[in-house]
Write a structure and sequence with these properties.
Number of helices: 35
Number of strands: 31
Shape: globular
Oligomer: single chain
Distance between the termini: 51 Å
Strand content: 15-25%
Helix content: 40-55%
Radius of gyration: 35 Å
Largest sheet: 5 strands, parallel
Strand order of the largest sheet: 2-1-24-25-20
Length: 956
């Protein structure tokens, strides 16, 4: 193909790969294995360009490992467990306008097809086949399609049944009360598809600090909710909404003053609640409440910002450590009229001062005061306040040290002592309640609250299980490395996890089939199922017993009588052992605190350490023209449309080159078009090389040839190192853009028709195509086959060729590049069209000074002492002093290898060899001298400005 037609080219290679079964991986041979996985899609809608990036990252790595000679398994399956697909079908059958709009206008479902989507699996199959699978194939993902399955398949359900029976036998499943999402309008638990707002809301356990008070002469407890119980010693006052509805209620036998909504929430959470009296919040305004930890009384102030629907509806104020509270207090002090209207003496408010409870570096004694003043925030309405508050909270959590008033906890960092401090006072001044991290609304319009219901849950709080999982984290290749502490943190805070739902698709709980195992809980070790998915269909479902899977995963010795092990299970065990463990799991960063940590928990418990996951790479979020992608709002780009417009190679290359996998990226049409133009230009350049007859044998190579080949070896090293760490942007940048810059320079330096140049360009192209093959497999394979008669993916990954890895030639060419840039700068500044360019290499004595700097080190005084001990150098006086200062900086900027390479260079010879090039470049005569040489011509007295590897230049 002489013209670049991505549609024709890509169709050709897709057909070829399919006919060859190119990416079907079998458990045979002695090659190293690589097993890479990515979360199986949930086909409740179509695939968009964000998904395309998610699946292309592991494909690039899989292709790289194949080029390295590995036997690579990259499978995919389909996650249909749960209720979202059922909900989508129900909304479709009801004819919901929004649902129809998304299906017809975003995902192009025609009217005739809509009826096929009116069953859950019909709906799922449509999006699997017409969107995800087609999109993945169009992208050229190197998937072994023999292994696909859905989580609703009978055999997969037997596998999940084995997992959950095993966990139950080991005491890691229990039944008991646990928080769930509960619609107060429909009076029933709800799941993801039922939620209109707050789908990502998390359960949060608030500490309730039980302040004492009197209402109508009776003693009551006023519980105030906080996520920072350690700040209780810093409470200076409280706030309440004077106009909201409150009650005094008996809560588990204690008389509590809380908002009316809080009383309902507490009852939902399994507390025994009986409302005794109803009040307005004003009943508590101006009263004092007693801190249960310090025994100090604090004043209750009126505040419109208090949300009676959040937690208990009464808020404690810690102005020393909460920027919100600090500003609210200042505003209360300035509002005498409001205080007096509620019968509060403004002097009592003025007397309230922040009480610090911890010290933190970088902030003053009152950290909240420092935070708002440094940010220039003067009003609680300032939108910047939220970020400033979060920054301070994070800083105090990670490095704030409690003051001496905290006794045994004094000097402790908040993150290390918070839980222990809280535990000490639970039941003795502290209580707890659950809330969501954000407002949650049901699709029926009802409020969704936290309720406690009897359910089965995974015991992620089990100490031994946590310890094993921490061990799994410690041996993990966490990419990027800073995610390791996120895994450890999640392991630490994870508690019981409810693992069942009342209805939905998926596997029934084996011992109680009224329930279904929920999506996150059935997707923890399915990677193990991939290893045998293409062969287990030969086993009747009724034969897939608990013992069968024991043998499959643990071997025949898992049975009391190994001779009784099913032969098929023994064979499948060998297949499993061939592929396991998972080398890399590629997944979204926001799954670290659930799916990915569950993945580690279950592997740590169910498999030996040798089969624990070896690596996890997380991925950032995708934006579209600067905004978050949203299928429900139609703000997406479909991969099929992008591929039809730009070609799969362009789509892949843009997605991989726009950011490292763990960073957020932004799909912008104009930038994708630019990428397409660049690949087209690359194709044309490659065609020129292909059309040019190559020498039969390697001819004599010029300096520029050797330099380009040396740069190629550096590129191979850079790309290889980057690929090992999933740094797809670094790798693609080096292989494509950086090497293109080198070629641009090479074309300026070299006669491209020379035999050495033709040979060099073909060599560089061949290697470059191998480096690009994981990113642009269609183009790279086509061009490499045209060049060498075999596709790039069959040619192997390039290694550094020591024959051409020449540091000296790199250094010499860098001198020429720098000199060219210096001349250009002078021409630009002086606006001169030079007739003559004079280049002055430095005098020998200046190299002696450089040697002294290297020997002595960066101490200028010591260097001067050493240099001045040489009589000849001492005679040069100030010139030596100035030079030493410059050379100290010069040495500091370079490592020893670079300096050694420079030391071996004959500067004048380098500049003389480049004189013809400079003459062509600037259309001028070029003269090269040594600054103190007998033949030097120096009409402008510039020669003595030369320094080692920094020639002086004069133009006229």
């Amino acid at each position: 193909m002489s013209e670049y037609d991505p549609q024709e080219l890509e169709s050709k290679w897709r057909s070829r790969w399919r006919e060859q079964g190119r990416y079907e991986a079998d458990a045979e041979g002695d090659a190293e294995t690589t097993f890479v996985t990515v979360p199986y899609p949930y086909p409740s809608g179509g695939m968009h360009i964000g998904h395309a990036r998610t699946y292309t990252v592991p494909d690039v790595y899989a292709r790289y490992r194949r080029l390295q000679g590995d036997n690579v398994l990259f499978p995919i399956a389909w996650h249909v467990t749960g209720t979202p697909i059922i909900g989508a079908v129900e909304r479709l059958k009801k004819g919901e306008e929004e649902q129809l709009d998304v299906l017809q206008n975003t995902y192009n479902v025609d009217d005739a097809t809509l009826q096929d989507l009116e069953t859950p699996m019909g709906y799922a199959r449509h999006f699997i086949e017409e969107h995800y699978k087609k999109g993945m194939q169009d992208l050229g993902l190197s998937i072994d399609w023999r292994r696909e399955f859905t989580t609703n398949d009978d055999r997969y359900s037997q596998f999940i049944t084995w997992q959950y029976r095993t966990l139950k036998e080991r005491g890691l499943l229990e039944k008991g009360l646990h928080p769930v999402k509960y619609c107060t309008n429909e009076d029933q638990p709800v799941t993801t598809h039922d939620i209109l707002e707050g789908e990502e809301a998390e359960f949060q356990e608030y500490t309730l600090v039980e302040f004492g008070a009197e209402i109508d002469g009776a003693a009551v407890t006023v519980p105030m909710a906080t996520l920072r119980p350690e700040t209780v010693r810093g409470v200076t006052n409280a706030y309440i909404d004077p106009d909201a509805a409150y009650v005094v209620a008996e809560v588990d036998g204690k008389s509590w003053f809380v908002s009316a909504q809080a009383a309902e929430k507490l009852e939902l959470q399994g507390r025994d609640v009986e409302v005794r009296e109803e009040y307005d919040g004003e009943a508590l305004v101006g009263e004092t409440v007693r801190n249960p930890i310090t025994a100090e009384d604090v004043l209750v102030l009126p505040a419109g910002f208090v949300d009676a629907d959040n937690a208990t509806g009464v808020v404690m104020s810690v102005p020393a450590h909460s920027p919100d509270d600090y500003l609210a207090l200042q505003e209360a002090k300035a509002d005498d009229a409001r205080m007096e209207a509620y019968g509060i003496d403004p002097a009592d408010v003025d007397a309230i001062e922040p009480v610090p409870i911890l010290a933190i570096e970088g902030y003053g004694e009152i950290p909240a005061k420092t935070a708002v003043e440094d940010a220039g925030i003067e009003s609680s309405e300032d939108p910047a306040l939220k970020e400033v508050t979060q920054d301070l909270y994070n800083a105090e959590f990670n490095s704030g040290e409690l003051l001496e008033e905290y006794g045994e906890f004094a000097g402790g960092v908040v993150r290390d002592v918070r839980d222990e401090f809280k535990a000490q006072y639970l039941g003795n001044g502290f209580d707890t309640m659950q809330e969501f991290s954000e407002e949650v609304v049901c699709r029926c319009g009802g409020d969704v609250e936290v309720a406690k219901q009897d359910t089965w849950f995974l015991r992620y709080n089990d100490a031994d299980w946590k310890a094993k999982t921490h061990d799994a984290v410690s041996q993990l290749d966490a990419i990027p490395e800073n995610t390791r502490e996120q895994y450890d943190h999640t392991v630490d805070w994870l508690n019981e996890w409810p693992c069942i739902r009342n209805y939905g698709l998926g596997t029934r709980l084996p011992w109680d089939e009224d329930f279904v195992i929920e999506p996150l809980s059935d997707s923890t070790i399915y990677m193990a199922y991939y290893t045998i998915a293409h062969r287990i269909d030969d086993v009747p479902v009724e034969d897939l017993t608990h013992e069968f899977f024991d043998v499959l995963f643990y071997g025949a010795d898992a049975l009391e009588d190994p001779e009784a092990a099913p032969e098929q299970a023994v064979e499948l065990h060998e297949e499993f052992e061939h592929w396991y463990p998972v080398d890399y799991r590629c997944s979204a960063n926001d799954l670290v605190n659930n799916h990915l940590t569950f993945f580690l928990f279950h592997h740590a418990e169910l498999f030996d350490p040798s089969n624990w996951p070896e690596g996890i790479t997380v991925m950032g979020m995708g934006l579209l023209e600067g905004e978050k992608m949203s299928s429900s709002k139609g703000h997406v780009v479909l991969p099929g449309e992008a591929i039809e417009r730009f070609g799969a190679d362009t789509v892949r290359f843009f997605l991989m080159n726009s950011a490292e996998p763990w960073q957020d990226y932004d799909w912008r049409d104009d930038q994708v078009e630019t990428t397409q133009d660049q690949l087209q230009r690359f194709w044309r350049r490659a065609q020129e090389i292909l059309d040019d007859e190559a020498p039969d044998a390697r001819p004599e190579l010029a300096q520029a040839d050797r330099w380009l080949l040396a740069r190629l070896q550096e590129t191979v090293e850079t790309v290889t190192e980057a690929m090992e760490g999933f740094e797809t942007r670094t790798a693609s940048q080096a292989a494509f853009y950086n090497l293109e810059e080198d070629l641009r320079w090479y074309r300026r330096r070299r006669d491209l028709d020379a035999p050495g140049a033709r040979w060099t360009q073909r060599r560089v192209l061949e290697t470059r195509l191998k480096l690009l093959a994981p990113f642009t497999p269609f183009m790279a394979n086509e061009l490499h086959e045209a060049l060498t008669s075999e596709p790039a993916e069959n040619a192997g990954w390039p290694a550094v060729d020591d024959e051409f890895a020449d540091e000296s030639v790199l250094v010499e060419e860098r001198l020429v590049e720098d000199l060219t840039a210096d001349v250009n700068d002078i021409v630009d500044v002086t606006d001169t069209d030079p007739d003559t360019i004079r280049v002055y290499a430095t005098a020998d004595w200046k190299y002696d000074v450089l040697d002294a700097v290297r020997d002595v080190g960066p101490d200028i005084g010591q260097v001067m002492s050493e240099v001045m001990s040489d009589p000849e150098l001492r005679e040069k006086g100030n010139a030596v002093n100035d030079l030493v200062q410059d050379l100290v900086a010069f040495v500091r900027e370079r490592d020893d290898d670079a300096l050694d390479a420079l030391e071996a260079v004959d500067e004048r010879a380098v500049y003389e060899a480049a004189a013809d090039f400079l003459a062509r470049e600037f259309d001028a005569d070029v003269e090269v001298y040594v600054e103190d040489g007998d033949d030097v011509v120096d009409p402008a007295d510039k020669a003595d400005r030369a320094q080692p590897y920094r020639p002086a230049v004069h133009i006229e």
